[in-house]
Amino acid sequence: MDDHNYKLNTFLYNKIKDISNIKILEFGVREGASTKLFVDLAEKNNGDVVSVDIDDYSNLIKSSRWKFIHSRDDNFKEIQKQISTNLDVILLDSFHEALHVSKIIYNYYDYLKKGGYFFIDDISWIPYLKNGYRDNFWCEVNNRETFFKIIDIYSCNSHNFDLDFTFISSGFAVLKKKTNQKLNEIEKKSDRSVSIKNLLRLLKKKI
User: Fold this and answer.
1) What CATH number is associated with residue 37?
2) Percent of the chain with pLDDT over 70
3) How far apart (Å, rounded) are the C-alpha atoms in residues 201 and 120?
4) How far apart are CA 1 and CA 166, in angstroms?
């Protein structure tokens, strides 16, 4: 089993495998690893899966439990007409850029039921560091920015959802919804790492 499939099975699947009548919304199909896992689960648990991608994967799977929408994930008006308002799972694995990830979270979070899970793929920059085993500047920078954007959202919404991470492969974040309140917008908070007090602390450590 490769790292991606191991990550899907150990971090994602184990959280959702016992949900009856499961309703799943997936952004990004690619090789279809998560899509096939979701459809298999939906067929066992009397559920439904909707997958969205800008590339046409409509012939990837034949199942009455699966619907494919050929669209950008930020085509909100069109997609929102075709999805459940009571989702158990949302997986974001499309365009991995911090502002886009934030936009998708804020536009679809309300469609998640209380107790549901919002998974975001590619939040770890560690494999992509210079001379790392996946050395890639774009992925390193974007994944790091995405990670901290999710932290920013959580810092204003810790009462609304729990947050967990795995750093297996390219990583996953998962938001578990605790309330039906709307998400608060991100507010800039003071960072004491650049305060005079911390600079004095660092100077003291050098002495």
Assistant:
1) 3.40.50.150
2) 100
3) 36
4) 17
